[in-house]
C-alpha cells in the first residue's frame, strides 16, 4: 500500500474532528498565524532585530537549524493533537517545555522558513544581493503575500489548507536536513519525566500474571505500574526500562518523550493511525 503524503495524512486526521472541534481549531490556528505575522513584521521593520536574527541563524549548524524547525513543527502540531487526544484520567500533562518556542527562536525559525520560501519562489532573488539587502527583498515579498502569511480574511477551509501547507513544508525541511542526527527511525529515546510521573499505580486483584520485564509473577495485593496501553509491570522493573526507551515492552505503545525528534515521530505515528481509521 502506497504511503500517504504529509498533506493527505493531516487532512484525513482533520476529517475525524467534529464541526465544533474544527471551528475551535481554526480559531486557534488563525491566532497562531497572526502571531507569526506580527513577529515577521517586527523582524522585517527593524534593521537591528533582523541583523541579530540573521546572525543567530549563521551561528547555527545544519543540525541545529533542523532542530529549530522540528521544535517549531512540534509546536504547530500540538494544536491539532489537543483535539485528537482528549485528556483522560491519569494522562500526563501537556509537555509545554517541548512545544513552547521563545521569541528569539521563533524569529529565527520564521526568518529561516521565509528565506527558504523566497528561494523556492525565486532562486535568484537572494543570490544577487548582499545579506544587508535581504531585509528589503524579504519585505517586498511579504508585502505581496501578506494575506497568505497572516490568514486575514481566510475562511475556515482556507485556514486549514494553509495549516496543512505549513506542516508539510516544515516536515519536508526536517527530513531534508536529516532530522534526528543519525536519520534512523525507531531509535530508542527515554520516556518524558512528566509522562512517567503521571503513570498510575494499581493494585493486583488476581495473581498469576507475570511482569514482562523480569518474568516473575505480579502477586495479588501488590501495587504495580499500569501503562496507557493497560499492560502492567513491577515498578522496579519498568522504571529502568522507561529511562532508556519510551515504548511498552509488550506492545510497543509509545509514551511521550522529551526528545524533539522522538516526540515528532511518536505524534506522527499517531496521526497516521488516526488517518487510517484506527482508534488510538
Automatic annotation (TrEMBL):
For whether the record's keyword set contains Mitochondrion, the answer is no
Q: Which GO terms describe its cellular component?
A: amyloplast
Record keyword Repressor present: no
Q: Which residues form a coiled coil?
A: none
First-tier enzyme category under EC? transferase
Q: Which UniProt keywords apply?
A: Metal-binding, Zinc, Zinc-finger
The enzyme's E.C. designation: 2.3.2.27
**Reactions catalysed, as given in the entry:** S-ubiquitinyl-[E2 ubiquitin-conjugating enzyme]-L-cysteine + [acceptor protein]-L-lysine = [E2 ubiquitin-conjugating enzyme]-L-cysteine + N(6)-ubiquitinyl-[acceptor protein]-L-lysine
What SMART domains does its record include?
RING (SM00184)
In terms of CDD domains, this protein maps to:
RING-H2_PA-TM-RING
Where in the numbering of this chain does the RING-type domain appear?
211-252
Gene Ontology process terms (BP): gravitropism; ubiquitin-dependent protein catabolic process
Molecular function (GO) terms for this protein are: ubiquitin protein ligase activity; zinc ion binding
Q: Which InterPro entries match?
A: Znf_RING, Znf_RING/FYVE/PHD
**The name this protein goes by in its record:** RING-type E3 ubiquitin transferase
Query: What is the organism of origin for this protein?
Result: Lactuca sativa (Garden lettuce)
Amino acid at each position: 500500500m502506497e504511503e500517504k503524503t504529509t498533506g493527505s495524512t493531516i487532512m484525513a486526521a482533520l476529517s475525524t474532528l467534529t464541526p465544533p472541534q474544527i471551528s475551535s481549531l481554526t480559531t486557534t490556528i488563525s491566532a497562531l498565524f497572526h502571531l507569526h505575522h506580527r513577529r515577521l513584521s517586527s523582524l522585517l521593520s527593524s534593521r537591528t532585530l533582523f541583523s541579530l536574527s540573521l546572525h543567530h541563524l549563521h551561528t547555527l549548524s545544519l543540525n541545529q537549524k533542523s532542530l529549530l524547525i522540528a521544535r517549531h513543527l512540534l509546536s504547530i502540531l500540538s494544536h491539532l493533537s489537543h483535539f485528537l487526544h482528549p485528556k483522560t484520567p491519569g494522562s500526563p500533562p501537556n509537555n509545554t517545555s517541548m512545544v513552547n518556542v521563545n521569541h528569539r527562536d521563533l524569529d529565527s525559525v520564521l526568518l529561516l522558513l521565509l528565506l527558504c520560501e523566497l528561494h523556492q519562489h525565486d532562486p535568484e532573488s537572494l543570490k544577487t544581493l548582499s545579506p544587508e539587502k535581504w531585509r528589503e527583498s524579504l519585505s517586498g515579498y511579504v508585502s505581496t503575500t501578506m494575506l497568505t502569511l497572516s490568514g486575514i480574511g481566510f475562511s475556515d477551509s482556507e485556514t486549514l489548507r494553509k495549516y496543512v501547507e505549513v506542516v508539510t513544508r516544515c516536515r519536508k525541511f526536517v527530513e531534508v536536513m536529516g532530522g534526528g542526527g543519525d536519520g534512523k527511525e525507531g531509535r530508542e529515546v527515554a520516556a518524558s519525566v512528566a509522562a512517567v510521573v503521571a503513570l498510575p499505580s494499581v493494585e493486583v486483584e488476581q495473581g498469576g500474571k507475570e511482569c514482562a520485564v523480569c518474568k516473575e509473577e505480579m502477586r495479588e495485593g501488590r501495587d504495580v505500574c499500569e501503562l496507557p496501553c493497560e499492560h502492567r509491570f513491577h515498578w522496579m522493573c519498568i522504571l529502568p526500562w522507561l529511562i532508556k526507551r519510551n515504548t511498552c515492552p509488550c506492545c510497543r505503545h509509545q509514551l511521550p518523550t522529551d526528545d524533539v525528534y522522538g516526540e515528532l515521530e511518536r505524534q506522527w505515528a499517531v496521526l497516521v493511525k488516526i488517518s487510517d481509521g484506527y482508534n488510538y
